[in-house]
Specification:
17% of the residues lie in helices and 48% in strands. By secondary structure, the protein is an alpha+beta fold. The strands form two sheets. Strands 1-2-3-5-6-7-8-9-10-13-14-15-16-17-18-19 form a 16-stranded antiparallel β-barrel. A two-stranded antiparallel sheet has the order 11-12.
């Protein structure tokens, strides 16, 4: 553009020059003007180079900013959690009626340092109980305990095959999420393996009940294998499991010397309760199934779980069966479930079974009713009611009723 303007000026000047200046003066003027044009062109080239450099620098900064912004950060690191407020009323025979308010708070951070690796760390309310993260309110408003709930790695060694190590979520399948063998809050410690191919699966673990040889180390081994696939318009999960826990002649793991959570034990001094040890190992053979379908627009699930301790000579069988209607997921949806359970004293290890049914542990039977309604995807309100008998095999049988009212949030 500047060149064209300059040429126009030259032509104009030429006409003026013919009338008012000599040829020499006009030639000098023309030379100076062409020099100016070359200088302007050089400045334009420098300006274009600076502009290209600026655009390139801006693009680099934008890429760096994208990497460092929260959006990029959350692609590899995620924070999840939940909070539950609970009111409980417990009516146990030969005990005063008990009311209490409790909270459960959990927070977990997961990261993916590589495409095939996940690392997680979680904190939860509660105390040293292996199967509960509830914290009872009171104590003059004293601060409550927060403990390490999760600390694990998960490596996808091959598609469908995962290796998990540390303090982790339970790898074993629980029909309808019930706690015949394992409480839902139980976080095993050790190594776990999960494998899926087509409709078939295998879960295995080596869990440390005590990993320090100084404290008489003990590792529990187990596996489940089965089928998970469609049967007509329904979904069927069915399989078999086996768990080997060598507890015979061992002392209680936590709590007082006689805290065996319903399992049979013997003491050197029965009056003073000293020298108490487990009477049995727990060689648990499990059969389980869950059938999920839809009736009309209502999801329906039927489930059953059967366990027998191959080492015990008596009180060696536990079973549970029930159904679930609905699914409290989307806003305004509901669910209701019913379960009957009979868990004999030495059928399963009481340390890790359901901590709520009949007050926790084994040697109990009875009904469980549970319902929930979803306010939205992150907020549910619900109830749980236990109508049980405990000390059914050992001791004096007594009725046990427990009502829980919950409001729970997740994020």
């Amino acid at each position: 553009m500047i060149r064209y303007i300059a040429l126009l000026l030259i032509m104009t000047c030429a006409q003026v020059a013919q009338a008012s200046v000599s040829d020499k003066d006009f030639s000098d003027l023309k030379t100076e003007l062409m020099s100016l044009i070359h200088r302007v062109e050089a400045l334009e080239a420098e300006n274009k180079a600076l502009k290209d450099s600026f655009v390139s620098s801006t693009s680099t900064v934008e890429k760096l900013a994208t990497t460092l912004t929260p959006a990029g950060w959350t692609e590899s690191v995620k924070i999840t959690g939940d909070f539950r407020y609970r009111y409980e009323n417990i009516d146990a025979e030969r005990s005063d009626t008990r009311e209490r308010n409790r909270v459960r708070a959990r927070l977990a951070v997961t990261a993916r340092p590589a495409d095939e690796v996940e690392v997680g760390i979680g904190l939860a309310s509660g105390n040293e109980d292996a199967v509960s993260t509830n914290q009872t309110l009171g104590g003059g408003g004293a601060t409550k305990d927060i403990n390490l709930d999760l600390a694990y790695f998960k490596w996808q060694a091959k598609p469908g095959f995962n290796v998990i190590g540390g303090k982790m979520k339970n790898v074993f399948y629980r029909p309808a999420g019930h706690g015949l063998l394992w409480d839902g809050d139980y976080r095993p410690e050790g190594l776990g393996f999960t494998f899926e191919r087509g409709n078939y699966f295998l879960n295995a673990a080596a869990n440390f009940l005590e990993s320090d040889s100084k404290n008489n180390d003990l590792t529990a081994y187990g596996f489940q294998t089965g089928f998970n696939g469609s049967v007509g318009n329904s979904q069927l999960v069915a399989g078999i499991g086996y768990f080997d826990i060598d507890t015979k002649d061992r002392e209680a793991f936590i709590g007082d010397s006689d805290d065996f959570f319903g399992n049979s034990f013997s003491c050197i001094d029965s009056d003073a309760l000293t020298g108490c040890k487990y009477d049995n190992n727990y060689e648990e053979l499990e059969l389980f199934a869950q059938l999920s379908t839809t009736i009309g627009e209502t999801p329906v699930a039927l489930f059953a779980d059967l366990v027998q301790n191959q080492d015990a000579s008596d009180f060696d069988t536990a079973w549970a069966a029930g159904l679930k209607l609905g699914n409290a997921g989307a806003p305004g949806t509901w669910e209701f479930s019913y379960l009957y359970q009979n868990i004999e004293a030495d059928a399963v290890l009481g340390l890790v079974t359901d901590s709520d049914f009949a007050g926790g542990g084994t040697d109990a039977k009875g009904h469980l009713f549970k319902g929930a309604w979803a306010v939205n995807k992150q907020w549910k309100i619900g109830f749980t009611f236990f109508d049980n008998q405990r000390n059914a095999d050992l001791g004096v049988e007594e009725d046990y009723k427990r009502l829980s009212l919950d409001t729970a949030f997740k994020f």
